[in-house]
Amino acid sequence: MLSSPGVFGFSGPNGFILCRAAAGEAEILTLAVDPDARRAGLGRALVELAMNVAALAGAESMFLEVAEDNAPAQALYTAAGFGLAGRRPRYYRRADREIDALVMRRDLNSSDVAPYAGPTA
Predict the structure, then answer these.
(1) Residues 6+ apart with CB under 8 A from 40
(2) Whose CA is closest to 59, among 18, 13, 11, 19?
(3) What is the pTM for the complete model shown?
(4) Angle 2-89-109 (CA atoms, 0-180°, nearest 5)?
(5) Where in the sequence numbering do the catalytic residues fall?
(6) DSSP classification of residue 119
(7) E strands of the chain, at which residues?
(8) Predicted confidence (pLDDT) per residue in 58-106, tens digit
């Protein structure tokens, strides 16, 4: 997937983010942080880095989908300035049920995106 046009990602020993930017929009495809490294700022740093790179690539907004039952991820994205833009019913399948995806969006205007400051831990 990384060889596809507009796709970019960043990784380290405790996490990674994979994104795509095209036609003035960007999308976080996936974000993962090792459970032992969570709540130390790595997820936020990866999201900020991705927003900066997407803005430099010409994206004016960034989107993502997050499971409705994933409160920690929703809190991370809300703290990074994302807001609810829509819903995809039954988008995620769990062993015992289907979960809606919340579609979140954030503008990437230069005044809105803080420069990447690196991980806080």
Answers:
(1) 119, 120, 121
(2) 19
(3) 0.86
(4) 50
(5) 65, 77
(6) -
(7) 7-12, 15-22, 25-33, 61-67, 83-93, 98-107
(8) 999 999 999 999 999 999 999 999 999 999 999 999 999 999 999 999 9
| Residue 85: both structure tokens together | 């833009």
Indicate whether 120 pLDDT > 60: no
Range of the domain at 63: 7-107
pLDDT, one tens digit per residue, over 32-61 is 999 999 988 999 999 999 999 999 999 999
User: Residue 66 sits in a domain of what CATH number?
Assistant: 3.40.630.30
- Domain presence at residue 121: no
Is-contact 30 67, C-beta < 8 A? no
Q: Looking up tokens 């989908």, which residue turns up?
A: 65
**Residues with Cβ within 8 Å of residue 93, at least 6 apart in sequence:** 99
